[in-house]
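Researcher: Let's do a round of design. I'm pasting the C-alpha coordinates now; please hold your answer until I've finished.
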Protein backbone atom coordinates (compact mmCIF):
# COMPACT_ATOMS: atom_id res chain seq x y z
CA UNK A 1 0.00 0.00 0.00
CA UNK A 2 1.37 3.32 -0.95
CA UNK A 3 1.96 6.09 1.51
CA UNK A 4 -0.78 8.15 -0.09
CA UNK A 5 -3.26 5.37 0.44
CA UNK A 6 -2.24 4.87 4.09
CA UNK A 7 -2.50 8.61 4.70
CA UNK A 8 -5.96 8.67 3.22
CA UNK A 9 -6.99 5.69 5.39
CA UNK A 10 -5.71 7.38 8.54
CA UNK A 11 -7.58 10.56 7.67
CA UNK A 12 -10.80 8.62 7.09
CA UNK A 13 -10.47 6.74 10.39
CA UNK A 14 -9.72 10.00 12.20
CA UNK A 15 -12.79 11.63 10.71
CA UNK A 16 -14.95 8.68 11.75
CA UNK A 17 -13.59 8.82 15.31
CA UNK A 18 -14.06 12.58 15.40
CA UNK A 19 -17.67 12.23 14.23
CA UNK A 20 -18.40 9.58 16.89
CA UNK A 21 -16.87 11.76 19.64
CA UNK A 22 -18.81 14.78 18.46
CA UNK A 23 -22.05 12.75 18.53
CA UNK A 24 -21.59 11.73 22.15
CA UNK A 25 -20.75 15.30 23.09
CA UNK A 26 -23.85 16.91 21.59
CA UNK A 27 -26.38 14.07 22.11
CA UNK A 28 -27.47 15.26 25.63
CA UNK A 29 -28.55 18.58 24.11
CA UNK A 30 -30.37 17.00 21.19
CA UNK A 31 -32.70 14.62 23.24
CA UNK A 32 -34.17 16.23 26.41
CA UNK A 33 -34.44 13.89 29.37
CA UNK A 34 -37.91 13.09 30.66
CA UNK A 35 -38.21 12.53 34.35
CA UNK A 36 -40.95 10.14 35.15
CA UNK A 37 -42.95 10.87 38.25
CA UNK A 38 -43.08 7.85 40.42
CA UNK A 39 -46.32 7.77 42.39
CA UNK A 40 -45.78 7.55 46.13
CA UNK A 41 -47.72 4.76 47.67
CA UNK A 42 -50.06 6.03 50.35
CA UNK A 43 -49.91 4.34 53.65
CA UNK A 44 -53.21 2.84 54.78
CA UNK A 45 -55.32 5.28 56.75
CA UNK A 46 -53.59 8.43 55.41
CA UNK A 47 -55.37 11.00 53.28
CA UNK A 48 -54.00 12.86 50.32
CA UNK A 49 -54.04 16.63 50.15
CA UNK A 50 -57.05 16.49 47.83
CA UNK A 51 -58.95 14.39 50.35
CA UNK A 52 -58.03 16.68 53.24
CA UNK A 53 -60.47 19.45 52.30
CA UNK A 54 -62.17 20.91 55.41
CA UNK A 55 -65.70 19.74 55.88
CA UNK A 56 -68.23 22.49 55.21
CA UNK A 57 -69.34 24.12 58.45
CA UNK A 58 -72.88 25.19 59.11
CA UNK A 59 -73.35 28.85 59.85
CA UNK A 60 -74.44 29.53 63.41
CA UNK A 61 -77.72 31.28 62.75
CA UNK A 62 -79.27 32.43 66.03
CA UNK A 63 -82.62 30.87 66.54
CA UNK A 64 -85.45 33.34 66.88
CA UNK A 65 -87.62 32.45 69.82
CA UNK A 66 -91.26 32.59 69.03
CA UNK A 67 -93.04 34.61 71.69
CA UNK A 68 -96.68 35.13 72.32
CA UNK A 69 -97.80 38.40 70.74
CA UNK A 70 -98.40 41.09 73.36
CA UNK A 71 -101.85 42.53 73.21
CA UNK A 72 -102.10 46.29 73.03
CA UNK A 73 -103.48 47.83 76.24
CA UNK A 74 -107.17 48.55 76.06
CA UNK A 75 -108.10 52.23 76.07
CA UNK A 76 -109.30 53.45 79.45
CA UNK A 77 -112.99 54.13 79.78
CA UNK A 78 -114.86 56.79 81.75
CA UNK A 79 -115.65 54.13 84.35
CA UNK A 80 -111.94 53.43 84.81
CA UNK A 81 -111.19 57.10 85.45
CA UNK A 82 -114.13 57.43 87.84
CA UNK A 83 -112.97 54.39 89.78
CA UNK A 84 -109.54 55.98 90.11
CA UNK A 85 -111.12 59.22 91.32
CA UNK A 86 -113.07 57.30 93.96
CA UNK A 87 -109.88 55.70 95.27
CA UNK A 88 -108.19 59.10 95.44
CA UNK A 89 -111.22 60.58 97.20
CA UNK A 90 -111.24 57.87 99.86
CA UNK A 91 -107.52 58.40 100.51
CA UNK A 92 -108.00 62.18 100.77
CA UNK A 93 -110.83 61.85 103.29
CA UNK A 94 -108.68 59.58 105.44
CA UNK A 95 -105.70 61.96 105.32
CA UNK A 96 -107.74 65.03 106.26
CA UNK A 97 -109.64 63.18 108.99
CA UNK A 98 -106.58 61.63 110.66
CA UNK A 99 -103.98 63.29 112.87
CA UNK A 100 -103.07 64.20 116.40
CA UNK A 101 -102.17 67.13 118.58
CA UNK A 102 -98.59 65.86 118.63
CA UNK A 103 -98.07 66.25 114.85
CA UNK A 104 -100.23 69.36 114.42
CA UNK A 105 -102.80 67.38 112.41
CA UNK A 106 -100.39 67.16 109.49
CA UNK A 107 -102.81 65.02 107.48
CA UNK A 108 -104.24 68.23 106.06
CA UNK A 109 -101.01 69.02 104.23
CA UNK A 110 -100.83 65.43 102.97
CA UNK A 111 -104.09 66.04 101.11
CA UNK A 112 -102.98 69.28 99.42
CA UNK A 113 -101.81 67.65 96.11
CA UNK A 114 -105.46 66.66 95.47
CA UNK A 115 -106.94 70.09 96.20
CA UNK A 116 -107.46 73.39 94.42
CA UNK A 117 -105.95 76.57 95.83
CA UNK A 118 -109.27 77.68 97.35
CA UNK A 119 -109.76 74.35 99.14
CA UNK A 120 -106.20 74.43 100.48
CA UNK A 121 -106.96 77.78 102.07
CA UNK A 122 -110.11 76.40 103.71
CA UNK A 123 -108.28 73.32 104.97
CA UNK A 124 -105.51 75.44 106.50
CA UNK A 125 -108.15 77.34 108.45
CA UNK A 126 -109.67 74.07 109.76
CA UNK A 127 -106.23 72.80 110.72
CA UNK A 128 -105.50 76.02 112.61
CA UNK A 129 -108.74 75.64 114.57
CA UNK A 130 -107.83 72.08 115.58
CA UNK A 131 -104.32 73.10 116.63
CA UNK A 132 -105.79 75.91 118.74
CA UNK A 133 -108.34 73.57 120.34
CA UNK A 134 -105.81 70.81 120.91
CA UNK A 135 -102.30 72.30 121.26
CA UNK A 136 -99.27 70.05 121.45
CA UNK A 137 -98.60 71.23 125.02
CA UNK A 138 -102.10 70.31 126.21
CA UNK A 139 -103.91 67.01 126.70
CA UNK A 140 -103.13 64.45 124.04
CA UNK A 141 -105.80 64.21 121.39
CA UNK A 142 -106.03 62.12 118.25
CA UNK A 143 -108.49 61.46 115.47
CA UNK A 144 -108.64 58.71 112.86
CA UNK A 145 -110.93 58.35 109.83
CA UNK A 146 -111.41 55.23 107.72
CA UNK A 147 -113.51 55.29 104.54
CA UNK A 148 -115.93 52.41 104.06
CA UNK A 149 -117.66 53.20 100.75
CA UNK A 150 -117.63 55.54 97.76
CA UNK A 151 -119.89 56.33 94.84
CA UNK A 152 -120.51 58.92 92.13
CA UNK A 153 -123.58 61.05 92.89
CA UNK A 154 -123.33 63.60 90.10
CA UNK A 155 -121.62 63.92 86.72
CA UNK A 156 -119.27 61.64 84.82
CA UNK A 157 -115.68 61.76 83.70
CA UNK A 158 -115.26 64.60 81.22
CA UNK A 159 -117.84 66.90 82.82
CA UNK A 160 -116.83 70.23 84.33
CA UNK A 161 -117.59 68.90 87.83
CA UNK A 162 -117.98 65.45 89.35
CA UNK A 163 -119.39 64.89 92.85
CA UNK A 164 -118.39 61.82 94.87
CA UNK A 165 -119.84 60.59 98.14
CA UNK A 166 -117.54 58.97 100.69
CA UNK A 167 -118.89 57.33 103.84
CA UNK A 168 -116.42 56.87 106.69
CA UNK A 169 -116.02 56.04 110.37
CA UNK A 170 -114.34 58.66 112.56
CA UNK A 171 -112.87 57.87 115.98
CA UNK A 172 -111.31 60.18 118.57
CA UNK A 173 -108.86 59.23 121.33
CA UNK A 174 -106.88 60.71 124.17
CA UNK A 175 -103.50 59.80 122.77
CA UNK A 176 -104.02 56.05 122.33
CA UNK A 177 -105.65 55.14 118.98
CA UNK A 178 -106.37 51.65 120.30
CA UNK A 179 -108.61 53.10 123.01
CA UNK A 180 -111.02 55.49 121.22
CA UNK A 181 -113.12 57.83 123.35
CA UNK A 182 -115.77 58.42 120.68
CA UNK A 183 -116.90 56.90 117.38
CA UNK A 184 -119.27 58.21 114.68
CA UNK A 185 -120.20 57.75 111.03
CA UNK A 186 -119.68 60.55 108.56
CA UNK A 187 -120.51 61.41 104.98
CA UNK A 188 -118.22 63.56 102.84
CA UNK A 189 -119.32 65.05 99.53
CA UNK A 190 -116.28 65.88 97.41
CA UNK A 191 -116.74 68.13 94.39
CA UNK A 192 -114.06 67.62 91.76
CA UNK A 193 -113.45 70.47 89.28
CA UNK A 194 -111.92 69.85 85.87
CA UNK A 195 -108.68 71.78 85.34
CA UNK A 196 -107.32 73.36 82.15
CA UNK A 197 -105.02 70.37 81.55
CA UNK A 198 -107.94 67.90 81.78
CA UNK A 199 -107.15 66.63 85.27
CA UNK A 200 -109.50 66.86 88.27
CA UNK A 201 -108.86 68.46 91.67
CA UNK A 202 -111.11 68.61 94.73
CA UNK A 203 -112.64 72.07 94.97
CA UNK A 204 -114.84 71.59 98.04
CA UNK A 205 -115.67 69.05 100.78
CA UNK A 206 -118.96 69.02 102.71
CA UNK A 207 -119.11 66.90 105.87
CA UNK A 208 -122.24 65.44 107.48
CA UNK A 209 -122.68 63.20 110.51
CA UNK A 210 -124.65 59.99 109.96
CA UNK A 211 -126.50 57.73 112.33
CA UNK A 212 -124.56 54.64 113.37
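Researcher: That's everything. Go ahead.
Model: Designed sequence:
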Amino acid sequence: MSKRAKLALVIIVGLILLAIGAYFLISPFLTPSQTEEVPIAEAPGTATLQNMKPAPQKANVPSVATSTPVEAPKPRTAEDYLREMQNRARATVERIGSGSSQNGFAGYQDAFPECTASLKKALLAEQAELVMAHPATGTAFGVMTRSVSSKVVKGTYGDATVVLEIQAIRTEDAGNPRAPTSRKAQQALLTYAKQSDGTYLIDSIAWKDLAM
